[in-house]
TrEMBL record:
The keyword Nuclease does not apply. GO terms for molecular function: phosphate transmembrane transporter activity. It comes from Pseudoxanthomonas broegbernensis. Coiled coil: none annotated. The keyword Transport applies. GO terms for biological process: phosphate ion transmembrane transport. Its main location: membrane. This is Phosphate transporter. It is found in: Membrane. Keywords: Membrane, Phosphate transport, Transmembrane, Transmembrane helix, Transport. Belongs to the inorganic phosphate transporter (PiT) (TC 2.A.20) family. The chain crosses the membrane at residues 43-68, 80-98, 155-178, 190-208, 255-279, 345-364. It is a multi-pass membrane protein. It holds the Pfam family PHO4.
């Protein structure tokens, strides 16, 4: 069984790598589309900032480890986690192939839910719906940590993107009316030059926020796997060189340092490999972007992600940046948005949790039928 635990950890790291190149576009699509950075430079910036962001907290990881599957109803066995990862990985690859910016976060959560339901023979109590209703910040479960943020984070991205864009235009208009040097700085040539430099900072902020939120999800998966293995006694007689696999905190509230560092490095490596299909969709197909628009979208999305990570919410980087771009485009010109592309993205959002969950569910059912569970 120890071999299976190691296989699951490897599969989790494969998911993290795929998450890196699948969601690279979220960090860098706008900075590439506005031609502020070359694709190579943008990928390098995103990889470094993903690494830094992933090392800055574990609240989201703790949610994944303890706030999705009810271990009192279904054992968090290695097979359950492996099937959850398979569902997430397959759906990520499908959407990557078709250039759809779907959510790796929701693919992973859908996989966990589907595998847990299959393991518990369709007992919906296998899923944690809500906990600790008296303390909003400490709430756990799908209702507070997944479904509520799934609706509010895209709305927040859209509204904030639109608001930041309107605020920037108001500042530039005020400078133009002021006259003198301020009026000259408000000219399009100087505005584009300023935001061309500022967008490098906003792209770095976006990369940081992406790593801070997304990398933690795989940390939580590995912690959940080790907690299940510890409970089952699989880790009782580990050889000395594998002693680091003991999860430490039995409640999953703290994530081991080696898990944090490994996931951060793997996500950075995946990001460095790039994801050009989705970059094309986000950066070019939804709305034509200039540096000021890219700055507004990245700053808005990164702020949503950072706040969500603080409260342990595994929200979708894809949702927040996509809707921030939509908000910026709407502020620019409501008619500039390409509705056909947006419809494809929305359908990918709607299908992600049930599709990844269904794949994971069928995988575990197949394992049961084959006698592997």
């Amino acid at each position: 069984m120890l071999t299976l635990v190691l296989v699951v950890i490897l599969a989790a790291l494969v998911f993290e790598f795929i998450n890196g190149f699948h969601d690279t576009a979220n960090s860098i699509a706008t900075v590439v589309a506005t031609k502020v950075l070359s694709p190579g430079a943008a990928v390098s910036l995103a990889a470094v900032m993903n690494l830094i962001g992933a090392l800055m907290g574990t609240a989201v990881a703790a949610t994944i480890a303890t706030g999705i599957i009810n271990t009192g109803v279904v054992e968090a066995s290695s097979q359950v986690i492996l099937c959850a990862l398979m569902g997430g990985i397959v759906w990520n690859l499908i959407t990557w192939w078709f250039g759809l910016p779907s959510s790796s976060s929701h693919a992973l959560i859908g996989g966990l839910c589907g595998a847990a339901l299959a393991a518990a023979n369709n007992d919906w109590d296998a899923l944690v719906w809500s906990q600790d209703l008296g303390n909003w910040a400490a709430n756990k479960g799908l209702l507070w940590k997944v479904f509520l943020p799934m609706v509010t984070s895209p709305l927040a991205g859209f509204v904030m993107g639109m608001a930041v864009m309107v605020l920037l235009w108001a500042i530039i208009a005020g400078m133009a009316r002021a006259g003198g040097l301020l009026r000259r700085l408000a000219r399009p040539r100087w505005v584009n030059a300023f935001f061309g430099k500022a967008q490098i900072l906003s792209a770095a902020y976006m990369g940081f926020a992406h790593g801070h939120n997304d990398a933690q999800k795989t940390m939580g998966i590995i912690a959940l796997t080790l907690l299940g293995a510890e409970t089952a006694g699989t880790l009782d007689e580990l050889p000395g060189w594998l002693a680091f696999l003991h999860p430490g905190q039995s409640d999953g509230s703290q994530i081991a340092t080696w898990i944090v560092v490994t996931c951060a490095l793997v996500m950075a490596a995946g990001t460095a490999s790039g994801g050009w299909r989705i970059i094309k969709t986000l950066g070019h197909k939804m709305v034509k972007l200039h540096p000021i628009h890219g700055f507004a979208a990245e700053t808005s999305s990164a702020t949503v992600l950072t706040l969500a990570a603080h409260f342990g919410m595994p929200v979708s980087t894809t949702h927040s940046i996509s809707t921030a771009i939509m908000g910026v485009g709407f502020a620019k010109n409501p008619r500039a948005l390409k509705i056909g592309v947006i419809e494809r993205i929305v359908w990918a959002w709607i299908l992600t949790i049930p599709a990844a969950g269904g794949l994971a569910y069928l995988s575990l059912r197949g394992m049961k039928a084959a006698g592997w569970l």
